[in-house]
Amino acid sequence: MPPALPESRITVAEIEEIVARELPIAALLGVRIDRLEYGRAVARLPYAGQLIRPGGTIAGPALMGLADFAMYAVTLSVVGRVELAVTTSLNINFLRKPAPRDVVAEASILKLGKRLAVSQVTIYSADDPEPVAHVTGTYSIPPQPGSENGGG
């Protein structure tokens, strides 16, 4: 039996508070966390007519915003409440046209270092097992006061 993973180092409520106070674009999109564990997060972008592009599909920038939000949540799940963690790279592969309904992003940490967290995100139309996009990205984690490389 594999060892149990530690609990997430941040709660969904704490992420919601950061969104309300510091991330107006995430609040505007209406993204939310469905599940949060250490090294794993599931985020949801609720369907809204404003997200549709010509052809009746969810716009790419909305999918990128969802993926970035999921990467932020999964990064904080392993480093804790480090609000100034920032995206340093995001690569998205659009695999197929998402349906005009909620979109779900499943994120996981691939590698965690002292200053960088690499993650991947698979995006699905709700209730459809076929992915619509695959994302990889890296977050920069600023040094924390009192850490070896950290502030002071």
Put simply, the count of helices is 3
Query: What's the CATH superfamily, by name?
Result: Hotdog Thioesterase
CATH architecture: Roll
Mean pLDDT: 93
Give the total of domains.
Answer: 1
SS class: alpha+beta
Overall shape: globular
Short description:
With 152 residues, the protein is of the alpha+beta class. The protein contains three helices and eight strands.
Explain what the structure shows:
With 152 residues, the chain is an alpha+beta fold. It has one domain: Hotdog Thioesterase (Thiol Ester Dehydrase, Chain A). Helix content is 24%, strand content 36%. The chain contains 3 helices and 8 strands. The chain has helices spanning 12-22, 24-29, 60-79; strands at residues 32-37, 40-45, 52-53, 57-58, 86-94, 103-112, 116-125, 131-140. The strands form 2 sheets. The chain has a 6-stranded antiparallel β-sheet, covered by helices on one side. The chain starts with 11 loop residues before the first helix and ends in a 12-residue tail after the last strand. The mean pLDDT is 93.
Topology diagram in text:
Elements: H1 12-22, H2 24-29, E1 32-37, E2 40-45, E3 52-53, E4 57-58, H3 60-79, E5 86-94, E6 103-112, E7 116-125, E8 131-140
Antiparallel strand pairs: 1-2, 2-6, 3-4, 5-8, 6-7, 7-8
